[in-house]
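Researcher: I'm comparing several assemblies side by side, and this is the next one on my list. It has 555 residues spread over two chains. Same procedure as the others: predict the full complex and return the structure.
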Amino acid sequence: MSTGLRDVALIGLGLTLWTALTSGPAWPQNPGAPAPTEKAAKRPVRTWSKLSVELPASQTLFPAGDGADIANGQCLICHSAGMVLRQPPLTQDEWRSEINKMRNAFGAPLPADQVDALARYLYSIDGSRAPTDRAVLDGQGS
Amino acid sequence: MQRRTSPPLQRLRRQFFARAGGLGLTGLLGSVAWEAMAESFVDFPFANGRRELVTNFPQKGAMLLQRTRPPLLETPFEVFDQGVFTPNDRFYVRWHLADVPSVVDPATFRLNVRGHVTQPVSLTLDDLVRKFEPVELAAVNQCSGNSRGFFNPRVPGGQWANGAIGNARWLGVRLKDVLDHASVKAGALQVRFRGLDKGVIAQTPDFMKSLAVDHARDGEVMIAYAMNGEPLPLLNGFPLRLVVPGWYATYWVKMLDDIEVLDKPDDNFWTTKAYLIPDTPFANVKPGQQGVKMVPINRMLPRSFFTNLQDGAVLKAGPTATVRGIAFGGDSGLAKVLFSSDATGSWQEARLGKDYGRYSFQQWELPVRLSAGQHRLMIKAVNAAGMAQPDHANWNGAGFMRNVIESVSVRAA
């Protein structure tokens, strides 16, 4: 962030505080009010309607590079690219572990002989060298 | 629920901040110009922390996009300054598997209760509403990995800041009553829950979570059919969601349509191989530590947050300002919220707002007067069991259960 942009940010934060100070109490105090934990609720009168929505599709592809075709062809089967692009920088070994988790835990159909190429690619777009920046994996499927 | 009556200036400010960051000073041209601009984003203070503010998800207002498919949407933190309950259209969203039904028809929807029961049942939504006593409970729903982006060293997974959390009034029926309706047989061990969502390839394990049968029958665990007085948004689990008060959201199964009583331990992937924590206080281990016993994640820890003050804020030195935020006790009620305006460990008790029950957010506030200079402000929740937020961040390889004391550095001038 440049110095100029930081100044803009500080002006913004100052406005925020001013807003907070001039808008009165955050909520009315009501010390005598009971504190229900769970209560019998009024039985709702409800007619259930069919719910139909449209979930947005992602248009994001992986950035160009050697191996991007594997990422676009395989990773995007189960999830959009944003999940990968927003991960912290990982070492190539850590990316390999993540790829193998997708294969072993979730059934990703990525052939074993493409794992290294995909790990190299992901490292090239979001790689970590610095030990202090290194993630420590526990390999859970969560 | 009480809300500030002033216009949502803070939200505008945040959007302005974000747009100014992306577009330089063109953001100063005015609000008309802002509305015409499609882009806005927030930069969280960790690598790859830029999050686009999006409005294209159904039944949702402006949310921070982490992943489009399956959706991961974070609540912008200024929402938590607007009231103790999180509006449905701003409530965070977290799905594991990409085949989330986009249509749910109550005419054909059934909740099945089966397995180790005397009388398997298939209930309509009207059955649930009419045949069982309704209960309402205010409870915090928090992703196990909320705040994972702040872990140091970083760990992979959903890279949330602090907004994978929300508080709502849940209306529904007791799980106990539904299980009693089906008559659980002697020897039942666990109750397993599954929703309508699926993976897109056959090999992906269905998302299922289990509770011990005694927990499932404790009279607090609920099947919710309404949230803050309205049907649940589809992305928060319409039409039914399990509510497990005080426990992390991984157990709050969305689009719940299948309840299976088990007479042996659940061995499904999501129970045995995922959402495991070190069996240590605060699930804390040293990075790289091996040989730690792992157990399923369970009860939440106390947390508190500033909501009207951000790191880097500049205040006026001298006059009293009101600092405020939210807090909750985790799996037990909130006992107190403590504030410190320096690094020496002198804590003072904040005033608490209305108590909506032991599982709810509660607002806190405190008058603060700062002398000119830099100040580090800290906030700490202590729950009814006497557990306080720790001074140092807990760490584990999955990025679960962060609950360190929150702090902001501000300058008074």
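Model: For your comparison table: Chain B touches chain A through 111 residues (CB under 8 Å).
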